[in-house]
Amino acid sequence: MGDSRFRSMLLLVIVVLVPASVHSAVRKYTFNVVSTNTTRLCSSKSVVSINGKVPGPTLYAREGDNVLVRVHNHVPNNITIHWHGVRQLRTGWSDGPAYVTQCPIQSGQSFLYNFTLTGQRGTLLWHAHISWLRATVYGAIVILPKKGVPYPFPKPDGEKVIVLGEWWRADVESVVKQATMTGLPPNISDSHTINGHPGPVAGCPSIFTARAGYSLQVASGKTYLLRIVNAAVNDELFLKIAGHKLTVVETDAAYTKPFTTDTIFLGPGQTTNALLTADQTAGKYTIAVSPFMDTVVPVDNVTAVGFLRYKGIQPFSPPHLTATPPINATAVTAAFASGLRSLNSPNYPAAVPQTVDHSLLFAIGVGVNPCPTCVNGTKTVADINNVSFVLPTVALLQAHYFKLQGIFTDDFPANPPSPYNYTGNPPANLQTTNGTKVYRLGFNETVEVVLQGTSLIAPESHPIHLHGFNFFVVGKGLGNFDKGKDPSSFNLVDPVERNTMSVPTAGWTAIRFRADNPGVWFLHCHLEVHTTWGLKMAFVVENGKGPNESILPPPPDLPQC
Ligand SMILES: *[C@@H]1O[C@H](CO)[C@@H](O)[C@H](O)[C@H]1NC(C)=O
Ligand SMILES: *[C@@H]1O[C@H](CO)[C@@H](O)[C@H](O)[C@H]1NC(C)=O
Ligand SMILES: *[C@@H]1O[C@H](CO)[C@@H](O)[C@H](O)[C@H]1NC(C)=O
Ligand SMILES: *[C@@H]1O[C@H](CO)[C@@H](O)[C@H](O)[C@H]1NC(C)=O
Ligand SMILES: *[C@@H]1O[C@H](CO)[C@@H](O)[C@H](O)[C@H]1NC(C)=O
Ligand SMILES: *[C@@H]1O[C@H](CO)[C@@H](O)[C@H](O)[C@H]1NC(C)=O
Ligand SMILES: *[C@@H]1O[C@H](CO)[C@@H](O)[C@H](O)[C@H]1NC(C)=O
Ligand SMILES: *[C@@H]1O[C@H](CO)[C@@H](O)[C@H](O)[C@H]1NC(C)=O
Ligand SMILES: *[C@@H]1O[C@H](CO)[C@@H](O)[C@H](O)[C@H]1NC(C)=O
Ligand SMILES: *[C@@H]1O[C@H](CO)[C@@H](O)[C@H](O)[C@H]1NC(C)=O
Ligand SMILES: *[C@@H]1O[C@H](CO)[C@@H](O)[C@H](O)[C@H]1NC(C)=O
Ligand SMILES: *[C@@H]1O[C@H](CO)[C@@H](O)[C@H](O)[C@H]1NC(C)=O
Ligand SMILES: [Cu+2]
Which region is the signal sequence (predicted)? Predict the structure, then answer.
């Protein structure tokens, strides 16, 4: 987008439809879902993309704007798009997870996503939310402050969007299909990417040319706001820039206290804005994107490489290198998480729920179930409180709104059904149950969820994402959560506000949120492999009083199953 036709259309909309007193605009985008050749990604295969680009278009809007994205599906695959982190107040129909808030947009169909950006500013991402199509269907969302409202940090001289991805040489849909058939873990990816550019992958043209690698141009002495998105499918990532420090000022479209670090850590689905000042000797500096994995699970360990280039330097200057953190650098991830605090200023207060109506303990992990047709007679599964979630064939939100019976049950367990030493020796029985179970919340009730990692098969870090809300990360720790002791150290003043948070390996994280958004809201691991295996559930939030506290009626073009 961003062409002149769009700009004049936008101007028309602002001038004609919106009174001058209302400082919000309508932002219109068209997403054509098409099949695209990926020569730039070193593969002759075609992939599903938006408008022929990977990453797809960046959405630009201001806080308060109404965003309209018309999605036309021109490929044989079913598709949906999720606006990851957008609150979707009363507009759950536009949230996007397939069979949760909508049926897929089928081949030849189109759907208008219609939502307003309320109370959020910063960077988010959008991505496909069906099967593994988000491997190539993703992009950034830039939410600028309202017109005339400054950033709560010095105005940067420039802004750059940096979207990290994960790339398979093979067709990702055949990768997930093979895993589902065999019951074995899916093949790992072949590289990580920076704005679509891979690292040094065998068989790819050298990345050490301006054409093939990602390049971030800066001018000496200037400060830039980097809008960094982790759009990877299964990998938590570190980002480092040789010789430069980064100052985090925002996470998941909520401002933070400035936090200066040499390493950014992002789970898939997480986003962050960080300031970078080009204050080193003019030159070329490596940008390195490498994975984090502190347990025995196999992971793509190919580092994606790009360059920060000062203006005016020789094109073939040798780069300053940076050492990537060790792949198992748990301490780096813990220090990064501990460094983040909500800004909590008078203009941007942290509305942390001080009391809790629903206190939930969710044990999250993997398991093994019988599967007569699978390679070993078993299949790997994943679960929350021993429930491997099964997606229905009708969207949960439709079932809820139209009171359709038999689609889901509302008995999702508030606690693990049989408590055990979650991070100790795993129980002998690795089986789970399954079902389409939801947990019901009244409008405006407050919720605390302690996400407890387990050591079933192997303990692992899980980036957990909640749709429809931001939550406050009030506490975290290693081992088992201690209900008697741990809450006394909770931060209820300025905890970081996010929509996705990594639960440490063999540890726990406590989050709080207020259920002030009616609808059906997905909670799941943002490692797509774990979501596929069943590490997911949904909250149903009832309507409150009157239309302002009730979900809007479904749009007329809502896809049907
Ligand atoms: C895309 O790749 C296929 C081979 O995989 C080739 O036949 C086709 O011509 C390519 N299309 C474009 C537009 O490059
Ligand atoms: C978008 O949804 C709002 C309700 O939230 C509605 O008033 C408006 O007409 C919709 N816009 C379009 C273009 O359908
Ligand atoms: C997964 O990897 C195995 C082993 O390298 C390979 O034989 C298989 O073809 C791969 N599967 C897909 C779908 O690419
Ligand atoms: C990366 O992983 C592969 C196996 O997947 C292994 O052979 C290789 O040694 C690893 N490389 C590094 C740098 O850890
Ligand atoms: C990380 O892995 C290396 C190599 O396997 C090992 O020597 C080191 O102890 C590990 N570090 C941590 C913190 O687990
Ligand atoms: C499944 O079978 C394969 C090959 O027979 C074997 O290597 C693997 O360890 C088995 N995995 C499990 C989880 O039993
Ligand atoms: C749980 O297991 C861990 C690791 O084996 C052990 O250190 C801890 O004492 C156990 N906790 C309880 C309550 O048994
Ligand atoms: C989970 O459910 C299965 C099937 O009912 C049961 O066999 C297993 O013991 C349960 N595991 C846990 C940890 O509750
Ligand atoms: C759910 O569990 C039942 C009973 O064990 C089993 O028959 C069914 O295949 C499972 N469904 C899925 C989708 O795993
Ligand atoms: C939600 O509850 C809080 C705390 O009781 C209250 O201040 C707020 O007004 C309520 N919001 C709505 C929309 O009812
Ligand atoms: C609903 O919200 C609008 C806009 O905030 C307000 O003008 C209106 O009075 C509210 N209506 C009710 C019934 O609360
Ligand atoms: C697309 O979705 C529809 C509705 O759920 C389903 O019936 C159909 O099988 C799906 N098609 C594909 C190609 O997955
Ligand atoms: Cu996970």
Answer: 1-24
